[in-house]
Amino acid sequence: MNRKIPWQGKDVPLAGSYDVIIVGGGSAGCSAGLTAARTGCRTLIVERYGNLGGSAVNACVTPMMVSYTGHHSNFYEVEERLQRDAATRDHCDWNQRWFSPQSLSCAWEDLYTEAGGTLLFDACAVDVIFDADGKGEEDRRKIMGPEASRHMQENAAPEASRQMQGNAGPEASRHIRYLLVMTVEGLMALEGKVFLDATGDAVLSRIAGAPTRHGDAQGHNQMSSLRFEVGGVDIEALRAYVHSLPDTYSRHWDEGDYFESAMVGGKNFALQPLFDKAVEDGVLEPGDLRYYQNYSIAGEPGCMSFNCPHLMSLPDNTGAFDRSAAMTEGRQRIRRLMRFLKAYMPGFSNCFLLHIAPMMGVRESWEAVGAYVLTEQDYGNRARFADAVARGDWFIDVHSAGKDVNTQKYERGEYYEIPYRSLIYKDFPNLLVAGRCISATFLMQASVRIIPTVIDIGQAAGLAAAEAVRSGSEPNRLDGHLLREKLGAYRTD
Questions:
Q1: What's the pLDDT tens digit per position in 84-123?
Q2: pTM of the full structure
Q3: SS3 state at 309
Q4: With bands split at pLDDT 50, 70 and 90, how would you rate the model's confidence at 144?
Q5: ∠ at Cα 360 (456, 187), nearest 5°?
Q6: What DSSP line would sit under 173-205, residue for residue?
Q7: 384: left (phi > 0), else alpha (psi -120 to 50), else beta?
Q8: Strand pairing category for 176-183 and 186-197
Q9: In sequence order, what E strands does 217-351 have?
Q10: By the 8 A CB rule, do 272 and 265 touch?
């Protein structure tokens, strides 16, 4: 294919044409890609890292948070693949799913490639080119102005940005035709019929100039973390010590079962005196006590994954240089925690650092402002929607940069529904959103963001993309009620 696409005064080679192009190969993007590819759609996942799995893999976010509501089929297929490497369920009444990051990455890659999907690793989205009534890039520039789509969100408040979007020209100007990506070969263009933003940070949406928001009322995001993995741990010695305190957090009593422990400074955790002693001795700093949590890893005896440290200097995680500085801060905290673990924590005397995540653990950054914004009132009301395509039941779990947020938790069997309208934009006809950056408020996103829920959202988005291709329609004009019917009954077990 020798076609060239004009962009910013350059001729960019067209590297391929696809029915569905997904930016982001995390849990939502993989689920969407698997579903679209299985329908026969020519499907491409564009991923900036060299493996699938997103934050669950590259940020070491394990295990899956507990979810008792029913799920779509992709969730259970992934679990069944993970079972080949190690048991995924623990022994306690949580029945939580556990996994190793590498096993999850391989499970997604095998499922997706077996379905005929194509992968483009080590590639970053740069820009989009709109098809304005079929006239391409030159018509887009006349309608929107040079680089307007790229800078619209960065330089305007949310309300002003949405107003600018409304004045950007006819709907045809917001129909994406090409995605520009940077690869080892340089810039290349990818032609698509449907585009899906599964980046977590709403990167594709912001590049396209679609309306997005971020943070709470003060502009603060949820607290980010930098996770790490440790080997050489005597987990049974740790289990015995934690339960001797006694500790009310860990419910994993059985020898040989999975295990987790935690300490949040000032919250009366049983482990706090040990941390206080390390601060007194100059091994830890007071900020290191903000949040501490670790988990055993499925199929990796003697290894634990740490959901810490919190990156205290990063209340707003939307700045590139701020994120970079926070990564350095995180690695410094990890080195202090390692010295603490070896010297103070039973079970860790022979431990060693296995791995520091190459990707920051971002719980929340940008969210779409789509056709429907899911809110915390929907959580409280156990909302039901005619166009519901997924369910959620995790609590509003805010790791806050400010004050604590308290909220109700559901009883088993309770849930809210997520409408298809939270996956689409009114004015961007062939752009879908899946994962933690769907259209939701700051608080509601804190419930939506867990792995089981975003896998279901991704499956719904992938089916919507395939249906749009099959019918020759646009995703934002699909009947969400019919989509709900095609997804079928939720499986429970």
A1: 999 999 999 888 999 999 999 999 999 999 999 999 999 9
A2: 0.91
A3: coil
A4: very low
A5: 80
A6: GG-EEEEEEEETTEEEEEEEEEEEE-SSS-HHH
A7: beta
A8: antiparallel
A9: 228-231, 260-263, 292-296, 304-306
A10: yes
